[in-house]
Amino acid sequence: MQLLGVGFMLPFKTYYAQAIEQWLKQNAGREVTHYQVGMLLGEAFNKTVAVATNGFRKTGLYPCNRHIFSDFEFQKFLLILMNQMIIHLKLYQID
């Protein structure tokens, strides 16, 4: 959760505020309405993607390493799952 807060939401909030401020300067005397919100959110989102990607990269979550777990670790998980199923079957007398 913290990664999303720091790596995505904080920069997104900052870039969105900057986009609004810039729009207000360029359109003096006008207010931001729902017609401009989509455009401003899009600008903020596009800037945030690069920052968020770097945050995920620093933590090792991106790019996804599909080979981080060995076959042995998957086998160990399957054995645990099978043992739980056997216990469940014995507990409820299911044949």
Count helical runs.
3
N-to-C SSE string, H for helix and E for strand: HHH
Structural class based on helices, strands and sheet pairing = mainly alpha
Mean pLDDT: 84
Count of DSSP strands: 0
The level of helicity is: over 70%
Low-confidence stretches: none
Q: Rough shape?
A: elongated
Q: Strand-residue fraction?
A: under 5%
Distance between the termini: 43 Å
Oligomer status: single chain
The major pleated sheet works out as: none
Return Rg in Å: 24 Å
Question: Could you give a short description of this structure?
Answer:
With 95 residues, the protein is mostly helical. Helices cover 76% and strands 0% of the residues. The protein has three helices and no strands.
Q: What does this entry look like structurally?
A:
- This protein has 95 residues and is mainly α.
- It is 76% helix and 0% strand.
- The chain has helices at residues 2-26, 34-59, 71-91.
- It is elongated and about 75 Å long.
